[in-house]
Amino acid sequence: MGEKIAMGFHTCVDYELMWDTEVVESLIREFDIHDEELSVSIKLDSERSVLIACLAFFRDGIGTEMVPENPRICNDFANHFAYKVTIGGTAARAAIAISALGYGSALQMCCYNEHIRRLLPKQVQSFSSVGKDHTDVYPHVVLQCRKGVHIRANDIDFVTPRENRVMISRDLDSLQMKVSLDFAPEVRDAEVFLLSCFSEVLDEGILTDRMEKTRQLLSHLPQQALVVMEDGHYVRKGFRQFVHRELQPVLDVLSMNEDEMQSYIGKRIDILDPEEVLSALKYVQEGTGVPTIIVHSSRWALAYGERCGIMHKALEGGITMSATRFRCGDDLDAREYAATQQIEDSREGRIFCAALRERAGDSAVCLPCKDLSFVKNPTVVGLGDSFAGGLLPGLLVENR
């Protein structure tokens, strides 16, 4: 018998940079960067331009993914900081997260190298679409910053409005995102499949091929299996709608964070305003055609649409898993997960959820996130991946 939880396809090596305000301010002075240059839309052809974009995103309180023109820029930028090497990618990090709770999974990976061999837990049955002889490492450099950090150098002077992260990579494995139909035997017993997004694929021909292979692979799932896709920030914006359209026939759930929702609707909203959020949810569901939409934010997580009634336990798992990672980083384990369950809910989240339920009725399930204001050194990279992983046990047939 195969695993009940299967996942694919994004796997990568993350360099999680340790935030150092002195280093950031020193680089601002070294690269002679000024406030008028800060922009989220800039050609990423140097370390200087990468830092300019990072500063602009942190100033605006927005997380994102960026693809520089050369992989070397990623390594050079990372080498200014101390960093930790971890496994990244939505599918892989989700598999690792639930392995801490004793759940096995089958994972198809789009890369393979020494770090994957060393760090992937034994509970994860891994299959590499690039073969086990593949050795290349294309790091995903993750710069994460706490809320309330004061950055001041040259004429740049701002305080970060929220915890956030910027991911920087030019990963040739992710650009290819190979999908192998040889993984089909591993999904035939699966009750839930987590599909990561294809945000780093930049070639239309490659993306079209991967959509066809993904549909073929998912056709081997049992009839009662649920397919959940965790969305992302697409480098080529039009590809996001293309992926949604191509995979809509096989998707049961589309999950995204608050920034991705706001990017989809094309404007920023108050995520604590139930009317604005409900309007955004309707827009996303109508635009994508996916039966159930999940949105997770720092204050609440919700399911909206046809099958939201079976999502309560899954949302609880996603909230708890992401909150545990926020507190503990890669030291997440079953004991810390249980401790997170006992943390009080966010007051703002409770108020919002009550107001949304009053307006949405049976069309939405909304749960408050944990009050994590006491955490002094949070991990903000991989929270969406951990949330996606935390959903999955609650979506097994016995828990629906």
Number of helices: 14
Low-confidence stretches: none
Shape: globular
CATH topology of the largest domain: UDP-N-acetylmuramoyl-L-alanine:D-glutamate ligase
Question: What's the CATH H-level homologous superfamily of the largest domain?
Answer: Ribokinase
Could you give the distance between the termini?
Answer: 21 Å
Give the strand order, joined by hyphens, for the main sheet: 6-5-1-11-12-13-14-15-16
The CATH first-level class of the largest domain comes to Alpha Beta
User: Quick one: biggest sheet?
Assistant: 9 strands, mixed
Per CATH, the architecture of the largest domain is 3-Layer(aba) Sandwich
Mean pLDDT: 95
At a glance:
By secondary structure, the chain is an alpha/beta fold. Helix content is 38%, strand content 20%.
What would your notes on this structure say?
The strands form three sheets. A nine-stranded mixed beta sheet has the order 6-5-1-11-12-13-14-15-16, sandwiched between helices. The protein has a five-stranded mixed beta sheet with strand order 3-10-7-2-4. Strands 8-9 form a two-stranded antiparallel sheet. The chain is built from 14 helices and 16 strands. It folds into two domains: 5-9 and 89-133 and 181-399, Ribokinase (UDP-N-acetylmuramoyl-L-alanine:D-glutamate ligase), CATH 3.40.1190.20; 15-84 and 137-168, Adenosine kinase, small domain (2-Layer Sandwich). It is 38% helix and 20% strand. The chain has helices at residues 21-30, 47-60, 71-78, 90-99, 114-119, 172-176, 204-218, 237-247, 258-265, 274-288, 312-328, 334-341, 347-360, 383-391; strands at residues 5-9, 12-17, 64-66, 83-88, 105-109, 124-128, 140-145, 150-153, 156-159, 164-168, 192-196, 226-230, 253-257, 292-296, 300-305, 364-368. The chain is of the alpha/beta class and 400 residues long. The protein is globular and about 60 Å long.
